[in-house]
Amino acid sequence: GQQVMQIPQYQHVQEGEDFTTYCNSSTTLSNIQWYKQRPGGHPVFLIQLVKSGEVKKQKRLTFQFGEAKKNSSLHITATQTTDVGTYFCAGRTNTGNQFYFGTGTSLTVIP
Amino acid sequence: DVKVTQSSRYLVKRTGEKVFLECVQDMDHENMFWYRQDPGLGLRLIYFSYDVKMKEKGDIPEGYSVSREKKERFSLILESASTNQTSMYLCASSAVEVVTEAFFGQGTRLTVV
């Protein structure tokens, strides 16, 4: 069945360092979404990528969708303590209603 | 502001009890989902529903059932709670179009003792 793998599972960085999480799908996706879950909170939608090779930026966050629409990455430049949380990717296909969530990357930022 | 509301934030139940987790959304969404979240395992789909009275099994449906009698409400039922069902349960909803996002409830932390 459809699988979305995400690495790394955990990442500890010093404040100011960069951070990247990677997402890989076993099949081609229609689009990919990214969510952030703050400690004690619920996942909140960040962004969606639809086009092959698409790159989007939100301030210090850069999101990429691979050319084959099977992988994606989230890069945070110069992390801050407010970036702490778990980042999930979620792939969608044209053939169903499901969101295929990655296992998430838990980011800890050390002040 | 869009809202997905889960009936309880924290719940403690005894082994063997029948447990109901309720979820209500106010966005007229067709799709509703139940996930459980455990450390290191991410979000695992239990069941989802794409219309009233329609349901489909997710990745881990064993030990659970669901009910969707009205469009805005999606219930998760643990027929006979067991300790391995201690977890965080998250409800989500989305519109039917594939380019729309999921909106999550605040989660229910269920402990089965």
Give a brief rundown of this model.
The complex is a heterodimer of chains A (111) and B (113). Chain A has strands at 4-7, 10-14, 19-25, 31-37, 44-49, 55-58, 61-65, 71-76, 85-92, 100-101, 105-110. Chain A has 111 residues and is an all-beta fold.
Fold and architecture overview:
The complex is a heterodimer of chains A (111) and B (113). Chain A has no helices and 11 strands. By secondary structure, chain A is mainly beta. In chain A, the strands form 2 sheets. In chain A, strands 2, 4, 5, 9, 10 and 11 form a 6-stranded mixed β-sheet that branches. The mean pLDDT of chain A is 95. Helices cover 0% and strands 57% of the residues of chain B. Chain B has no helices and 11 strands. Chain B has strands at 4-6, 10-13, 19-25, 31-38, 42-51, 54-57, 64-70, 73-78, 87-94, 103-104, 108-112.
Helix content of chain A: under 10%
CA-based gyration radius of chain B: 13 Å
> What sort of overall outline of chain B do the alpha carbons produce when their principal axes are compared?
globular
- Helix/strand class of chain A: mainly beta
Mean model confidence by pLDDT of chain A: 95
As a percent range, the share of helical residues of chain B equals: under 10%
Give a count of the beta strands of chain A, DSSP E runs of length 2 or more: 11
Shape of chain A: globular
N-to-C SSE series of chain A?
EEEEEEEEEEE
Judged by helices, strands and strand pairing, the structural class of chain B is mainly beta
What oligomeric state do the depicted chains represent?
Answer: heterodimer
Q: Sketch the major β-sheet of chain B.
A: 7 strands, mixed
Beta fraction of the residues of chain A? over 45%
> Helical element count of chain A?
0
Give the low-pLDDT segments of chain A.
none
Task: Name the pair of protein chains with the most residues at their interface, and give those residue counts.
Answer: A-B, 26 and 25 residues
The overall pLDDT average of chain B reads 95
SSE sequence of chain B, one letter per element? EEEEEEEEEEE
C-alpha Rg of chain A (nearest Å): 13 Å
